[in-house]
Amino acid sequence: MMGKPVRAILAALTVAALLAAPVAMAQQASGDKALQRITVRVLPQAEVYGKTFTLGEIAEMDGFDVDVLSRLAQVELGRSPLPGRAMRLSASWLAARLRGEVDPDRLDIRVPDEAQVVRGSQTVSARRIRELVLERARKDAPTQGDTELTIRTAVRDVVLPKGKVDWRIEPVGPANSNGNRTYRVAATVQGQRAWQGIVGISQDVRRQVVVLTEAVAAGEPLRAEQLSTVERDAARMREKDYIAGVDAAVGQVAARDLRADTVLRKALLETPVDLEEGDKVTILFAAGGVRLTVPGVAMVQAKRGDFIPARNLQSGKIVYGTLEAGDMLKVN
Predict the structure, then answer these.
(1) pLDDT computed for residue 115 by the predictor
(2) For the chain, what is the domain count?
(3) How do residues 15-43 score in pLDDT, each as one tens digit?
(4) What does the DSSP 8-state code read for residue 305?
(5) What percent of the chain has pLDDT over 70?
(6) Domain hosting residue 4, numbered range
(7) Do the domain assignments include residue 275?
(8) In CATH, what number is assigned to the domain containing residue 306?
(9) For residues 310 and 321, is the Cβ–Cβ distance under 8 A?
(10) Are 287 and 304 in a shared domain?
(11) Which of 72, 199, 233, 271 is the one with CA 20 to 30 A from 320?
């Protein structure tokens, strides 16, 4: 049988064990809670690059629950500020964004004073944009003469997101009567449209043109002493309208009365008539080695090279032929 001293010792140990159990349980619970704790430390200034940003881009996180940490890092917090702009952050704002993602009691959110998110950016100078537009405009400019291009739209520096920039520059409609054009300029960064603007170009084409030094009446052939070459703005004239030079104009006939200093265009001149209606012609019949000529009369006004009808004065018949040098009408 146990003695009284032994029973007293056992009783004391039992009481001590009962008293220690709650303390041990509390310590274990406290340890488990500590293991579940997640600390979120927001960076004083976090730079982001996309249109939206995640928790992992703006904060460092500590904790033992790796799965939860990985999931929290991917949580999208909202839209990023515009390139080059910033937005302030606060613990309350961040806690609201993480609500529903994890038990709030597990979070220890630490946000420095003045913490902010900054959108990464790059600045493209107005000078660079003007260079790009002028480069495209030169490709579209007329090839004749000396062309001077001028930007007529105010162009400013552009702030874009960071990344590879691709430019697309396209004309908006055709050039107007002054040769001026408008271009749509668009910038994409990493395949995303980042900026678009409109830039106008004025065009001054300088070239040598043929002008009259004196007035000329309609139907009057042009003489060399009546012509001169000067440099003019030819932006409104198409290349095919120009007279190639003084030599090309000499002998041409004014299609209407022309004043002195008129810039000569092809539409203002006519090739002189070599044959009037009713003029006598020599009709040439050629077949193989046989050549036969008979007198005839032109039935229309004609120039050399024209295919015209004529009346054979011997037979009275109408024949067709090509007017060659002089009054020769060749009939095949």
Answers:
(1) 94
(2) 5
(3) 555 555 554 454 544 455 556 899 999 99
(4) T
(5) 85
(6) 1-28
(7) no
(8) 2.30.30.760
(9) yes
(10) yes
(11) 271
